[in-house]
Amino acid sequence: MSKKINPIRAPWKGELTPRERFNRQMDFAPVDRSFNMEFGYWEENYTQWPMFVDNEIKHEWQANQFFSFDPIVTVHPSTWMDPSFPYKVIKHMGDKQIIQNGDGLTAEVLTSHSSTIPHFTDSSIKTPDDWKRVKKERFQLDAPGRAIDVSKIIQSHPPARDYPLGIYCGSMIGKIRDMLTFEGICYAWADYPEMLEDMVETCCQIVESQLDKVLGKVDFDFASGWEDICFNYGPILPPSFFKDVVAPRYKRICQKLQNHGINLWYTDCDGDVRPLLPIFLDAGINCLFPYEVNSCTHPGELLDAYPNLRIMGGVDKMQLIEGPQAIKSYLESLVPYVKRGGFIPFVDHRCPPDVTPENYLYYLDLKEKLFGM
To answer: What global pTM score does this model have?
Structure first.
């Protein structure tokens, strides 16, 4: 039996259901108030924030209930390796370990499992022969793990539900970057472009196959994706690669989504996405999530420049670290964009433990005052 959560905040008042509110807000239609959600927290928050520790809040879904956020759910079919590489510890080194992860990468990690980026040291795929072998073993369309119980999804998320439901459309290039490493994908682009394009095509075919199993049978409100392919100086690979290789695959997926009435598709891409944004929009990805501010710019600049763009996120977490005055100034700068629609404000990635519980609660209070309408 799941643990009963006693919320410390009441849900924001409103006349619409969460599903009605989400769909109207993201379609630039009038709403009773903003959709109220957050993107989660670092693992350390669950052991360092007294309000989490004292109330035994250990996971994001518990935190969402604890703060009475509006519900939103995404169905995640198998769109990547199936099966994954077996996780194994290769070597112990004091407070560190050398491990192999599910993507077949060798990495140096802290034994404390703190929220730090692993130091990747080797990849299982370096040459076209490596890819040919791994593709045959782990990227087949009919892998047993790709089976989808549609009736179970419908039973869990019936058409009459009152919350928005999304379908995950995987990753065309971000997970490939994970599998090859930052340096590895750059070498692949230069040395093995045909291999790299085949990887993108393979990912697209898997997503298309999975979508064909559920679209038209389950009533989805939006689509989601993951493309962590940018850093603070822009995309890892040149925009021409995205335009020529990645975007045509996005367009194929977008056509399937739109054929079934799904007109909102967001992708999670950190870093400076500005060089890729016109390509995303042209290919059908029309929403950024959770839109990281510090490596890019204030969300208002992009919303002003691209009238059909939607953004979910975009609240600069660094302002939450600074304190109430900075939080107030920043949230007030978002007011006209929330009023306009197509923008749901929340912290622009997982909230770090550098944000004090007091600052976070002040942020939630002010967010409700400004956007709870």
So the answer is: 0.95
In sequence order, the β-bridge partners of residue 288 are 267, 311
Q: Of all helices (H) and strands (E), which one includes residue 347?
A: strand 343-347
Q: Which helix (H) or strand (E) holds 179?
A: helix 174-180
DSSP, residue by residue, 26-56: TTT---SS-------B-TTHHHH-HHHHHTT
Can you give the pLDDT of all 373 residues of the chain as single tens digits?
A: 467 899 999 999 999 999 999 999 999 999 999 999 999 999 999 999 999 999 999 999 999 999 999 999 999 999 999 999 999 999 998 888 999 999 999 988 888 766 667 888 889 999 999 999 999 999 999 999 999 999 999 999 999 999 999 999 999 999 999 999 999 999 999 999 999 999 999 999 999 999 999 999 999 999 999 999 998 889 999 999 999 999 999 999 999 999 999 999 999 998 999 999 999 999 999 999 999 999 899 999 999 999 999 999 999 999 999 999 999 999 999 999 999 999 999 999 999 999 999 999 999 999 999 999 8
Q: Which residues contact 142 (CB under 8 A, 6 or more apart)?
A: none
Separation between Cα atoms, residue 111 and residue 97, nearest integer Å: 6
* Residue 66: both structure tokens together: 């604890």
Q: How many whole angstroms from its chain centre is CA 286?
A: 14
Structure token digits, residue 220: 């989805």
Distance, CA of 67 to CA of 72 (rounded, Å): 14
Angle CA 16–215–136, to nearest 5: 135
DSSP of 138-171: H--TT-GGG---HHHHHHHS-TT-SS-EEEE---
Identify whether the C-beta of residue 100 lies closer than 8 Å to the C-beta of residue 85.
yes
Distance in angstroms (rounded) separating the CA atoms of residues 339 and 275: 27
Alpha-carbon distance values, 58 to 48, 49, 62, 117 (Å): 11, 11, 7, 21
Positive or negative torsion for Cα 349, 71, 344, 311: positive
Residue 317 token pair: 């977490």
> From CA 100, how far away is CA 122, in angstroms rounded?
9
Pairing mode, if any, of strands 96-100 and 88-93? antiparallel
Task: Return the bridge partners of 216, or none.
Answer: none
Cα–Cα distance measured from residue 158 to residue 139, given in angstroms and rounded to the nearest whole number: 31
How many helices (H) and strands (E) would you count in the chain? Answer: 16, 13
